[in-house]
């Protein structure tokens, strides 16, 4: 997961620095998306630390904090005053951040697997987590494609 987030951040920075025109709009959106990705990356690291130290209750705390912080980024995106061509990029960015939020939810559920969890339930949670990550990758790709289209 960490490599995915780092890849996403690098990808956004490259595209954000491409062309002029609506650069400020693109830059504002890219910065907010980058910040959301950093939030999710920190969340992922915190969850791993909580799992390593067996502080499972801490996962709910960091999950809520990550959701709240990413909601702020979504609201910031909604409040940007943009020129019409960048509206589609805003919509794509919001959809991507919401898909990252779904990773938070799926990971929080996934971390509830224990020795008492049935095999079927564990498989379902595992499958849900993988599907959620794949969906986020697709949403990231859609956002990056839109950004690339508008900056080239």
Short description:
The chain is mainly alpha-helical and 152 residues long. It has helices at residues 2-16, 23-52, 57-79, 87-110, 119-151. The chain has a single domain, classed as A middle domain of Talin 1 (Up-down Bundle).
Describe the protein.
The protein has 152 residues and is mainly α. The chain has one domain: Up-down Bundle (A middle domain of Talin 1), CATH 1.20.1420. Helix content is 82%, strand content 0%. The longest helix is centred in the last third of the chain and has 33 residues. The protein is elongated.
Task: Considering the chains and any ligands shown, give keywords for the structure.
0% strand, A middle domain of Talin 1, 152 residues, 5 helices, single chain, mainly alpha
Spans with pLDDT under 50 lasting ≥5 residues? 16-21
| CATH domain fold name | A middle domain of Talin 1
Report the average pLDDT across residues: 86
- In terms of DSSP E residues, the strand content is under 5%
Cα gyration radius (Å): 17 Å
Going by helix content, strand content and strand pairing, the class is mainly alpha
CATH architecture: Up-down Bundle
Taking the alpha carbons of the first and last residues, their distance comes to 29 Å
**CATH C-level category:** Mainly Alpha
Say how many strands there are.
0
Number of domains: 1
User: From N to C, what is the helix and strand string?
Assistant: HHHHH
Share of residues in helices: over 70%
Shape: elongated
Output the number of helix runs: 5
